[in-house]
Design a protein that fits this description.
The chain is α/β, with parallel strands linked by helices and 468 residues long. Helix content is 34%, strand content 22%. The structure holds adenosine-5'-triphosphate (ATP). It is found in: Membrane.
Length: 468
């Protein structure tokens, strides 16, 4: 997706200096006064505006900046102007239903936003006194999520997984579920992902009829690291606007936050900083915290977030993955082993965790059923090697029952998705939490022992008597 011609600035910029060096996306600018960090500077070429963001003060009169547009055509000696502010995006109530780039310019072929205001993408987080805690549990209709990784208003959920295990599919199912089951609006940040995926998502949202309640901000794989580094903040700025000014309940979805870290790492090397652990930027944890701390709910509106996190080489100990993990309430871990067995969504029920899985938040019944399911699945995992070597006959009666029920529970927690209906040929299902709890209770107590594993696979609710 290419960046369209930049629009004319809203404020008249004042000259601040001269471009002295340009190396790919890095510019060294000689200034008559030092602009603050994060200030947006610009140059004009053929009546188009090229934006830069200040990243380093080199000495008393030189700064290093990163371009937010392509750098071809820029040359030494060009006059650089100060826009007077950090990067800002136009905000307006009619931003919903639009597909924008990081500057708030349309990528959907529509008219530019008629801005009622401009907001800086570097807004500081709200004071803690204005933040409110997490709210009620939101049902997604996805069995394994509602049961083991509950989704809470104002909470932060991460979907972790290596390449191709189903993060994007699960994110799209979330958007589908939450836009049909709940009131509210969604802001989608497409960070550094494939351009094809962006187009598909846009069309699917339009077909599903959820576009009027959704705002999408894209900075995709082909764009400069400066853009990929800022697209999450730009989308978050719109989410804050919807929360603070329009008092909406916002679902903030980011696919993929790992690409934000990757772009930060590229920017860091371009600025000549020494890499830190595993080659990541030394500022990794600060950059993640600056973004995560802005995802807050207030008395006026809530921001609930879902973030897809690419796990490099399926290694959950990766420093970038850990930096994100620390900020989340719920971590849904997608496993390649589950996907390999055709268990979709490929959620690993034992590795996934939620701070909200307690009696106080969910109630004693939900908590005990969830624990019962995890205990069965965990015992099954422990016994798997023994079963492979010696067969089921060597198990005690109790273990035999646990394994049979765990295998059925594992299949019961699969579910056909609306998002994948076009390629699986199975219509999606949404299962109320009450049904999921009742069915799991029936599995644990042995009431569903008569069902075959086939009867449990890719079904919705089992109706209390085992009939889908
Ligand atoms: N719930 C599901 N039901 C059926 N198939 C699925 C499901 N989830 C994922 N898949 C299959 O896995 C493929 C990859 O899924 P997806 O694009 O969501 O992975 P990803 O983790 O986002 O990958 P990447 O990191 O490469 O972007 C899908 O095209 C689909 O074939």
């Amino acid at each position: 997706m290419s960046i369209p011609a930049a629009t004319e600035p809203t404020l008249s910029p004042v000259p601040i200096g001269t471009l002295t060096e340009i190396h790919g996306p890095v510019a060294i600018i000689s200034c008559n006064r030092l602009p603050p960090l994060h200030q947006a500077l610009c140059a004009y070429l053929d009546h188009e505006r090229y934006l830069f963001e200040v990243h380093q003060h080199l000495d008393d009169h030189r700064i290093r900046a990163i371009t937010l547009h392509r750098s071809s055509g820029l040359s030494r000696g060009m006059t650089i102007y100060d826009t007077g502010t950090p990067l800002q995006v136009p905000v307006a109530p009619n931003c919903l239903g639009r597909l924008l780039n990081i500057f708030g310019e349309p990528l959907d072929g529509g008219a530019p936003l008629l801005a009622s205001d401009f907001r800086s993408v570097h807004n500081p987080p709200l004071p803690l006194s204005e933040a409110v805690g997490i709210g009620d549990v939101i049902e997604t209709g996805i069995k394994v999520i509602d049961l083991l990784c509950p989704f809470v208003k104002g909470g932060k959920t991460g979907l972790f997984g290596g390449a191709g295990v189903g993060k994007t599919v699960l994110i799209m199912e979330f958007i589908h579920a939450l836009s049909t089951l709940h009131q509210g609006v969604s802001v989608f940040a497409g960070v550094g992902e494939r351009i094809r995926e962006g187009h598909e998502l846009w069309h699917e949202m339009r077909q599903a009829g959820v576009l009027p309640q959704t705002l999408m901000v894209f900075g995709q794989m082909d764009e400069s690291p400066g853009v990929r580094f800022r697209v999450g903040l730009s989308a978050l700025t719109y989410a804050e606007y919807l929360r603070d000014t329009l008092h909406k309940e916002v679902l903030f979805v980011m696919d993929n936050i790992f690409r934000f870290i990757q772009a930060g790492s590229e920017v860091s090397s371009l600025l000549g900083r020494m890499p830190a652990t595993v080659g990541y930027q030394p500022t990794l944890t600060t950059e993640v915290a600056e973004m995560q701390d802005r995802i807050l709910s207030t008395g006026h509106g809530a921001i609930t977030s879902v973030q897809a996190v690419y796990v490099p080489a399926d290694d959950m100990t990766d420093p970038a993955v850990n930096a994100i993990l620390n900020h989340l309430d719920t971590s849904v871990i997608l496993s390649r082993a589950q996907a390999g067995k055709g268990i979709y969504p490929a959620v690993d029920p034992l590795q996934s965790s939620s701070k909200l899985l307690d009696r106080h938040t969910l109630g004693a019944r939900h908590y005990e059923i969830a624990e019962g399911v995890r205990e069965h699945l965990s015992r099954y995992q422990e016994l798997e090697d023994i079963i492979t070597m010696l067969g089921m006959e060597e198990l005690s009666d109790a273990d035999h029952n646990t394994v049979i029920r765990a295998r059925k529970l594992q299949r019961y927690l699969t579910q056909p998705f609306w998002t994948t209906a076009s390629h699986t040929g199975i219509t999606g299902t949404s299962v109320p939490l009450a049904d999921t709890l009742r069915d799991c209770e029936c599995f644990l107590s042995g009431k569903y022992d008569h069902l075959s594993e086939e009867d449990c696979y890719m079904r919705g609710s089992l109706g209390g008597d085992g009939v889908a």
